[in-house]
From TrEMBL:
Protein task: Catalyzes the rate-limiting step of the oxidative pentose-phosphate pathway, which represents a route for the dissimilation of carbohydrates besides glycolysis.
Keywords for this protein: Carbohydrate metabolism, Glucose metabolism, NADP, Oxidoreductase
Protein name, as recorded: Glucose-6-phosphate 1-dehydrogenase
GO biological process, one term: glucose metabolic process
Pathway: Carbohydrate degradation; pentose phosphate pathway; D-ribulose 5-phosphate from D-glucose 6-phosphate (oxidative stage): step 1/3
EC number: 1.1.1.49
Region of interest called Disordered, as start-end residue ranges on this chain: 1-22
Length: 497
């Protein structure tokens, strides 16, 4: 799949205060203001090549943002890549164009494709960059082999290991919340925080994708990458700057402080059908015809990790992820310690700071307040920043310079998709939101012993009903390590009121 995106340099005398910026102009202005990037020029020709054009990822996430034409070929056939190179050079500006290769492929063909790209398709005059989609291997050894192979063909600054969660608005917001606000700094440590919970919940099952899922499982699919990346952003020390390497240096330091996960700190579950449910909810994981009969693959996992450093020693980081649960949600929840010297007769609940990644992006702090009326009774409430309410569907975030557009609060402007942000980062040469090789190595080091033990012993996962919160044993584990779940308070999205 080839795509050529060329943008015209806007006239300097254009009246920006009257004419709204186009989507591409907004991104261009944003990158110029935030990164002052010298590599990205709107007048340059950029050619985007997708390997794996027939795949689900490409159809759902990549194509909606790109123009296309199609070249058919075999991944292991050098002549097919020579044909692709000939086509690229025939495009306007193709001989001098920058080339971005997106490997939306299974890891089994990475070796052939990357080798043929290096041999046949590299730009002689422009830059060359390669996006590699997760999973980055199957365990530490396979990941190291893949990294060594890619490193033999490309330099590290040409390799972009993409985890789309690093492109989500609220995940990127974690750094600003932490290091741009004085109020959080003094309490962001083991003296004030009792535990940190990172959750990823989906209300649907595998639905015909069980063959792929059964090969990897929920730990490899979600926990080892998405949740661990969010953990790093919560736990890392303040970087020297917002440069890519400074940020990723601090993330690696966090990972090095985490010991490998043991099976005693893990709860594994597998969903079963709900006899009283409707549609797919009547079906369990093993009812999926693409799932091997009798599979013991987990569709739900809770794991407890500890960061053994001065800031976090003793604070449990509880990672929870699963399919066929009671809601769709991804969030970071910091639960603070009890207020010392209670004078309200055990009526107070713990404070919490919640960063909701999806859906309905929000940041809210759960706190105690006096219940209105004549009685002196505390009740739970929240300080709420819900993006759809505050930012008018995201318009003021990206039409952020009032001098550029007077229509900055129009409601039809939406937050960019995570893939849009990350692909733009690749064009700009920014690697802050991509996974570095040493970061990947440490992530696999943490989970590989657990994964190997599960693969070898095949422990039977605990059944949980489709549409439930997951196994009750997972709640027991969280309670055991210090998380306190009262279940008396639920955040209400104010946008729906």
């Amino acid at each position: 799949m080839t795509s050529q995106a060329t943008s015209q340099t806007s006239q300097e005398n254009q009246n920006m205060t009257k004419i709204p910026l186009s989507r591409s102009e907004v991104f261009g202005e944003l990158r110029k203001e935030l990164h002052e990037d010298e590599e990205f020029h709107q007048s340059d020709a950029h050619i985007f090549i997708i390997m794996g054009a027939s795949g689900d990822l490409a159809k759902k996430k990549i194509y909606p943002t790109l123009w296309n034409t199609y070249i058919s070929g075999k991944y292991a056939d050098e002549d097919s890549f020579s044909k692709l190179d000939t086509h690229i050079q025939s495009l306007p500006g193709g001989t001098e164009a920058n080339r971005l290769f997106y490997l939306a492929l299974p890891p089994t063909v990475y070796h052939d494709v990357s080798k043929n790209i290096r041999t046949c398709c590299m730009s002689k005059k422009g830059w060359n960059r390669v996006i590699v989609e997760k999973p980055f291997g199957h365990d530490l050894q396979s990941s190291e082999e893949l990294s060594a192979h890619l490193s033999s063909l490309f330099t590290e600054d040409q390799i972009y290991r993409i985890d789309h969660y690093l492109g989500k608005e609220m995940v990127q917001n974690l750094m600003v919340l932490r290091f741009g606000n004085r109020i959080f700094g003094p309490i962001w440590n083991r003296d004030s925080i009792a535990c940190v919970v990172l959750s990823f919940k989906e209300p649907f099952g595998t639905q015909g994708r069980g063959g792929y899922f059964d090969d990897f499982g929920i730990i490899r699919d979600v926990m080892q990458n998405h949740l661990l990346q969010m953990l790093c952003l919560v736990a890392m020390e303040k970087p020297a700057s917002t440069s890519s390497d400074d940020v990723r240096d601090e993330k690696v330091k966090v990972l090095k402080c985490i010991a490998p996960v043991t099976l005693s700190d893990v709860v594994l579950g597998q969903y079963v059908g709900d006899p009283e449910g409707e549609g797919d909810s009547k079906l369990g994981y093993l009812d999926d015809p693409t799932v091997p009969k009798g599979s013991t693959q987990a569709t739900f996992t809770t794991a407890v990790l500890y960061v053994h450093n001065e800031r976090w020693d003793g604070v449990p980081f509880i990672l929870r992820c699963g399919k066929a649960l009671n809601e769709r949600k991804a969030e970071v929840r910091l639960q603070f310690t009890d207020v010392p010297g209670d004078i309200f007769g055990n009526q107070c609940r713990r404070n919490e700071l919640v960063v909701r990644v999806q859906p309905n992006e929000a940041v809210y702090a759960k706190m105690m307040s006096k219940k209105p009326g004549v009685y002196f009774s505390p009740e739970e409430t929240e300080l709420d920043l819900t993006y759809k309410s505050r930012y008018k569907a995201g318009a003021s975030l990206f039409l952020c310079a009032e001098k550029h557009c007077k229509h900055r609060n129009q409601k039809d402007v939406k937050l960019p998709d995570a893939y849009e942000r990350l692909i733009l980062d690749v064009f700009c040469g920014s690697q802050m939101h991509f996974v570095r090789s040493d970061e990947l190595r440490e992530a696999w080091r943490i989970f590989t012993p657990l994964l190997h033990r599960i693969d070898k012993e095949k422990p039977k996962p605990i059944p949980y009903k489709y549409g439930s919160r997951g196994p009750t044993e997972a709640d027991d584990l969280s309670k055991k390590v210090g998380f306190r779940y009262e279940g008396t308070y639920k955040w209400v999205n104010p946008h729906r009121l």
